[in-house]
Amino acid sequence: MSSAKPRRSRFARFIHGTTTPLASIFGSGFLVIVSLLADTTGPFSLFAMAAICAVAYAVGMVIRHNIAKAEPALTSGSAPRLLTLFERVSDIALIPAYIISVTLYLRILGSYGLGFFGVNTEYNERMLTTAIIAFILFIGVAKGLKMLEGLERWSLITTLAIIFLVIGSFAWYDAGVIAAGPVTLPPLPDHSVWEIITVLAGTLIVVQGFETTRYLGDEFDAETRIEASRNSQAISTAVYILFVAVSLPLMHILGGDVSGNALIALAKEVAFWLAPPLVLAAVFSQFSAATADAISASGNLLEITKHRLSARLTYVIICGFAILLTWTADTFQILALASRAFAFYYFLQCLVGLEVAEKTSHRVALALLAALLLFITIFAVPVG
Known about the structure:
Elements: H1 4-25, H2 29-40, H3 45-75, H4 81-115, H5 122-142, H6 151-180, H7 193-201, H8 222-247, H9 263-270, H10 275-304, H11 311-326, H12 331-356, H13 360-379
Helix pairs in contact: 1-6, 1-8, 3-8, 3-12, 4-5, 4-10, 4-11, 4-12, 5-11, 6-8, 6-10, 10-11, 12-13
């Protein structure tokens, strides 16, 4: 009896630790990835999705390496000067990345919410996004956003349930298409290799979120966080590849539509009842992800300024920049910008890893990945 309780306790901690990165990874990716890949790689979308996930998994290995190796050095009080500098700058780099993500999540929410009713003009999306940001600001200033943190777990459960509902419905539709005759794949878009690479570079945000375990040290031990990060990436990779695979026979229906809510069109093609739960998942998941990133950005701002700013003022800063970005860029421009911001953060984490790497092979791998992430930071562009 005495040995069973710790095991249950550890299992509970693992599940709780996994939900945070998993909710972040599924924050927006499944809502935009199909139309983005259809317009970029067409019939080769499944290979493109696998490549995106592979890059993300490699970066996840860096984060897990830093949890195991860099964190003990940083907390020892005798960390090398460069290690401390790289870690400090990467913490600062996360702030704009989170602010951009808040804007992206809410733009996608607006796109799906308005798109369901056929009124998703650029102006309407910006107005609705601004209104939601203002609501988040009001809650943050009046009550604090911590009261909304519980949404994350329920959002993940709802999102995963609807993702699997969509995957199952698409697979059933595909089976009928295959039985009826040849499958029509999306055409290969007329893009140069450079255009394809730079657009795919701008999709890193769709598999971002595994790095959140790096900042849960107050709640979970290193072993739990490393395991949770690894498993969240394995689960999300399997789901994304399966999702793109069952969407492939439907992609030609989009006909070049790269709007942020193009998945609604595919859902309606498969079953008239599938669109409402998809929109529900979009609204619930995007609002939860936006508040989670606003909380994270606020926490980073407070830490960096040594609490010279009040929590309320940090919410004003975050929401103010989010509104500014809402009115100066469209959804896919914000998506590419978010990818570049997180790629820069991951680049800095590679530098952190290099400072504590012990094997030459690890140093070479980290240097190559850092070069790739720097390429994404500089050259990633939006689709369309």
